[in-house]
Amino acid sequence: MMKSGYLLLAGLLFAGCSHTDVRNAETSRPSVYTVNYPLAYFAERLAGDQADVVFPEMEGDPAFWAPTAEQAGEYRKADLILLNGAQYAKWVPNAALPQPRCINTSAGLEEQFIALDGSASHAHGSAAAHAHGELAFTLWLNPELAVHQAGKIFDALSEWADLDKGALAALTADLEKLDADLAAAFQSLENTPLLGSHPVYQYLTARYGLNMESVHWEPDAEPDAGMWRELADILETHHADVMLWEDEPLPQVKQALADKGIKSVVFNPCGNRPDEGDFMSVMQANVQAVRNLK
Fold this sequence. Notes:
Strand content: 5-15%
Order of helices and strands: HEHEHEEHHEHEHEHEH
Radius of gyration: 24 Å
Mean pLDDT: 88
Shape: globular
CATH architecture of the largest domain: 3-Layer(aba) Sandwich
Number of helices: 9
CATH class of the largest domain: Alpha Beta
Number of domains: 2
Largest sheet: 4 strands, parallel
CATH topology of the largest domain: Rossmann fold
Helix content: 40-55%
Number of strands: 8
């Protein structure tokens, strides 16, 4: 009887532990790490409060950011790691991330990738001088491709939580509206010679049929004499009077361009988390900046 009682008690305790484990598994939220802000924004909208979405605070372009050993360890412990694909985030291949938990959000888009042919998207400079790699990677600047990425994120998160399909429908609708707004804004600029201050607008150019040549300037730095000569060489055959910038350029650079008849317009790719607003508000500000060119 005593032995049977112990067995019964042990069985009850085991059952209680098992119930607790299941309950915790059902109520805990998956941790989701991303390599850029657009993916974090998509995941936050799709998951709501059903996942902990983490995009580490960082300076500069996330495409060229490198995590500390501690940060890389946090990525490895995540339940899901959302990757951009197209050779984005140069640290990823050497980080020993757990492949089953890595979600390549651009898988299936390979035929639409834009290759860099050694000129950094017509920058007339050496691509090797800046590690952009062999592929353009700002996929989300084509909202159609962003819709694909959002769908991949939704499918991955759905393995961990019972997501509302309405959230995906709402995000898709917003991206489709953004696509229509950008198409309308750029319509009057189709085939008009444009300049890009940096080779990041390839998917924007391809989506809306833009005629753009890019240099390799940073908004917080003043171009040297060689960079101005490079621009002059481009302008000999590419008579542009508008340059798109990732951020507001230095006042003296903006004025020097204006003296050449070139207007500076901020079109922020929003790869990093903005100081104010969110992905969609930044994109709408981009739309308005283009509209103001008319």
